[in-house]
């Protein structure tokens, strides 16, 4: 592994990196409600007006960005992480974002009459639909359940495909798109769901209420955040608390652990001509980092 280079500092809990052709990176800043473009030289420029709690991002088939908005978090002095719903919280949503102007349009705020709680991460399949996680929201004396959903980018269809999941966070597809992986934050568990057809999951044999199969996890005070699938099919999971990128084989074995200079690496994505440049959000310090990875990441559908 190469030296970790810090591209940008002073960010408000960055997440959701998306790499563009010119080497710039679009990120979200949950604390502040911003979508921000970071150029290769580290200059940070706002994309549109701040609002809500922007979290996961993905490039869609129409060249627009698709955003998971968690509805906003409450931030208290001395805490870099959200401490619950923001004042006036009305639920979360999935939005389309114009890459040129930053204008946001809500596509989905509910599913089957139930409002979305805190959409978190998103991945498109080859057919142009997308899976997204809802992490649920932590309240002072209870929390909403999380789940996994599948939707179309034109706003015409959304369905719940796995529910309830305690705290569904990162989501990614295997190279053959026969498997969707979900990182569950609390308890540090990595779940596998077998795909029957786009947006339709096979019934799992495991006793989990959502039908998934657990393939890996970590002990101690580890918590999982986002994930990225490598070209080999391995799954790189950002691990909070321990400050590692933990790489799992599809059978659940831990095959690599890469230490980060932050206790809260939250997202990892890949870019560059050979897909070996890893971009990592370091959210305790509020930084965006990049480094050369020892194997290529999987090129995402519609990645520019």
Question: In words, what does this structure look like?
Answer:
The model has no long low-confidence stretch (mean pLDDT 95). By secondary structure, this protein is mainly beta. It has strands at residues 5-8, 14-19, 25-29, 34-38, 44-46, 54-59, 65-69, 93-97, 104-108, 110-111, 114-115, 119-124, 130-134, 146-151, 158-165, 168-173, 179-184, 189-197, 200-201, 213-217, 223-229, 235-240, 244-248, 254-259, 265-271, 277-282, 287-292. The strands form seven sheets. Strands 16, 17, 18, 19 and 20 form a five-stranded antiparallel β-sheet that branches. It has no helices and 27 strands. A hairpin with a 4-residue loop joins strand 17 and strand 18 (189-197). The protein starts with a strand and ends in a 12-residue tail after the last strand. Helix content is 0%, strand content 47%.
Between the first and last Cα atoms, what is the distance in angstroms?
A: 25 Å
Helix count equals: 0
Strand content: over 45%
- What structural category characterises the helix and strand content? mainly beta
> Quaternary status of these chains?
single chain
Low-confidence stretches: none
Q: Could you describe the largest sheet, including whether it forms a barrel?
A: 5 strands, antiparallel
- What sort of overall outline do the alpha carbons produce when their principal axes are compared? globular
* H/E topology pattern: EEEEEEEEEEEEEEEEEEEEEEEEEEE
| Helical content (DSSP H or I, runs of 4+) | under 10%
Query: What's the count of strands?
Result: 27
């Amino acid at each position: 592994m190469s030296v970790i280079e810090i591209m940008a500092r002073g960010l408000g809990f960055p997440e959701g990196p998306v790499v563009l052709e010119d080497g710039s990176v679009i990120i979200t800043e949950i604390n502040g409600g911003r979508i921000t473009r970071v150029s290769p030289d580290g200059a940070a420029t706002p994309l549109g007006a701040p609002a809500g709690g922007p979290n996961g991002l993905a490039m869609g088939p129409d060249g627009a960005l698709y955003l998971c908005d968690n509805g906003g978090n409450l931030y208290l002095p001395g805490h870099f992480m959200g401490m619950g719903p923001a004042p006036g919280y009305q639920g979360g949503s999935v939005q389309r974002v114009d890459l040129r102007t930053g204008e946001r349009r809500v596509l989905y705020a509910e599913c089957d009459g139930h409002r979305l709680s805190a959409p978190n991460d998103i991945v498109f399949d080859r057919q142009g639909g997308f899976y997204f996680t809802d992490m649920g929201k932590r309240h002072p004396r209870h929390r909403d359940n999380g789940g996994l959903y599948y939707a179309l980018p034109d706003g015409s269809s959304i369905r719940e495909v796995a529910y309830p999941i305690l705290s569904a966070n990162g989501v990614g597809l295997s190279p053959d798109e026969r498997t969707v992986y979900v990182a569950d934050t609390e308890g540090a568990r990595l779940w596998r769901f077998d795909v029957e057809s786009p947006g339709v999951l096979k019934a799992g044999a495991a006793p989990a209420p959502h039908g998934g199969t657990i393939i890996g996890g970590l002990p101690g005070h580890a918590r999982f955040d986002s994930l990225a699938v490598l070209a080999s099919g391995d799954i790189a999971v950002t691990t909070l608390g321990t400050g590692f990128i933990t790489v799992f084989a599809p059978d659940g074995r831990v095959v690599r652990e890469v230490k980060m200079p932050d206790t809260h690496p939250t997202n990892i994505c890949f870019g560059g001509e050979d897909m070996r440049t890893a971009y990592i959000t370091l959210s305790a310090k509020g930084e965006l980092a990049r480094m050369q990875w020892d194997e290529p990441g999987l090129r995402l559908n519609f990645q520019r």
